[in-house]
From TrEMBL:
Residues 291-347 form the AFP-like domain. GO terms for molecular function: N-acetylneuraminate synthase activity. InterPro entries: NeuB/NeuA, PseI-like, PseI/NeuA/B-like_N, SAF, SAF_AFP_Neu5Ac, SAF_PseI/NeuA/NeuB. This is N-acetylneuraminate synthase. It comes from Clostridium frigoris. The keyword Transport does not apply. SMART domains: SAF. Keywords: Transferase.
Length: 347
């Protein structure tokens, strides 16, 4: 368990929900601000972007991923695609100030050393590390030295690689780490999600855990919270039809709001796990449970037998489980058919 600004992250607390704007601003700071506004309306805890210098992130000859080619609709190099989506440091300062003014937490994922240093210099409260950098031990060590909470996505990784990443962070005396289960396809098919792996990670490393979702719709992140996710991250966009690699695998603002509300509803329904009757059930308990009643007219002084008993609603009298305390006893007055038999009318 740890804290990011005023949010406590961990078991026993509400899921920390991150609206992943990513690069869905398409390189336009004004669209980024629109995303901030929509995130606030949805009720998420934070909005997250991606900060990078294209020249530091990718070579000029790196090919696009298959999903990027499919979602964009044409082939280019990763470099050319990302360069169009890059925002300046000045733009991020403007976005961060806008988030402060609007009172929503600003986060961003750094993809290179320079971007990490920049985000640290402007006082970002926690660092998100992408699945692609889980094996980038030099970057992990660099960010760990900031001594800020780290949220680490684990798409494409196995337990051994996650362990190596955590050890690199822990060795620099940074223990405030959460690991998000993730399937790095955009969109990810349901059969590829393997949601139970989230708790495998949690149990294996005793860490705060969560889920970074790339499936279509809102079902899987809601399910993740139901089985214990401490953090949820989900891509969203102003318009799924916008040009760019991630829009098609993102929620629109209405869907994002629906997801947040559904998660909060699920959390409310989970309760504390103690099995007992709820105060709201008292009226139903009286109407639906049964009491011991006379199955026929019983005269005063008669010895009660099982044949004299029946069990009927309402449950305002003696519970049927106490029938043994009645059988074989003598009545101290006449008892009418269907009258509740209580301990004070037997000897």
């Amino acid at each position: 368990m740890f804290k990011i600004e005023n949010k406590i992250i961990g078991d026993g607390n509400r899921a920390f929900i991150i609206a992943e704007a990513g690069v869905n601003h398409n390189g336009d700071v004004n669209i980024a601000k629109q995303l901030v506004d929509k995130a606030i309306i949805s009720g998420v805890d934070a909005i997250k972007f991606q900060t990078f210098k294209t020249e530091k992130l990718v070579t000029g000859y790196a090919d696009m991923a298959a999903y990027q080619k499919s979602n964009i609709g044409h082939t280019s190099s990763q470099f050319n695609m990302l360069k169009k989506l890059e925002l300046s440091q000045e733009s991020f300062i403007e976005i961060q100030e806008y988030c402060k003014y609007k009172e929503i937490m600003f986060l961003s994922t750094p993809f290179d050393f320079e971007s990490a240093d920049f985000l640290e210099s402007i006082g970002m409260s926690a660092f998100k590390i992408s699945s692609g950098d889980l094996t980038n031990i030099p970057l992990l060590e660099h960010i760990a030295k900031f001594n800020k909470p780290i949220i680490l996505s684990s798409g494409m990784a196995n337990l051994s690689e996650i362990e190596e990443a955590l050890n690199a962070i822990y060795c620099l005396e940074n223990s405030e780490v959460a690991v998000l289960h993730c399937t790095s396809n955009y969109p990810a098919k349901l059969q590829s999600v393997n949601l139970n792996a989230m708790n495998t990670i949690k149990n294996a490393f005793k860490v705060v855990s969560g889920y970074s979702d790339h499936t279509k719709g809102i079902t899987v992140p809601i399910a993740a919270v139901a089985i214990g996710a401490n953090i949820i991250e989900k891509h969203f966009t102003i318009d799924k039809n916008m040009q760019g690699p991630d829009h098609k695998a993102s929620l629109n603002p209405t869907e994002l709001k629906d997801m947040v509300q559904a998660i909060r509803d699920v959390e409310m329904s989970l309760g504390n796990g103690i099995k007992r009757y709820n105060p709201s059930e008292v009226d139903t308990m009286k109407a639906a449970r049964k009491s011991v009643v006379a199955s026929r007219y019983i005269k005063k002084g008669q010895i009660i037998t099982l044949m004299d008993l029946d069990y009927k609603r309402p449950g305002t009298g003696l519970s049927p489980k106490f029938y043994v305390d009645i059988v074989g006893k003598k009545t101290n007055r006449d008892i009418k058919i269907d009258e509740q038999i209580t301990l004070n009318i037997i000897e």
